[in-house]
Amino acid sequence: MKKSLSWRLFILVAGTLFALLAGMGLSAPAVAAPVQVAANGNYHGDDSDLTLDVNRNGDLRVTGDNYDAKKVYVKIVKFSYHDNARTVDERNVWTDRGGDFRYTSDKGKCGDSYQAYSYSHKDGWDRSETIRVKCDRGGDYGHE
What we know:
The chain is of the alpha+beta class. The chain is built from two helices and nine strands; from the N terminus they run ααβββββββββ. The radius of gyration is 28 Å and the shape is elongated.
């Protein structure tokens, strides 16, 4: 007993349609979440913290907490009145076992505004708040 021609055509057309739908990506996206995490560049969460401060001697102090990377690129940028930015200090720093680092720079001057930036492959980019170095007549330094 032979199958009818209409059933053979129906199976052929249905199989072709299913193949086209699968080829267009209409199947279930099983790897959508891991691809988005990898594209973001942040593999371990966004828990790193970068701060910029001025000590009593007028030195800029950069402190990083909870970094996943062992080596972090850090730079301090000076902002002028016309929104021109210039890097005044940059270096690669090593983190301790807790993912923390600290270093000081003597590049800060009274009346100038600064911001610190950091980058690592595991943590991505991070930045501190912008501070303005102020000096009083007694020789003490602070920030606004």
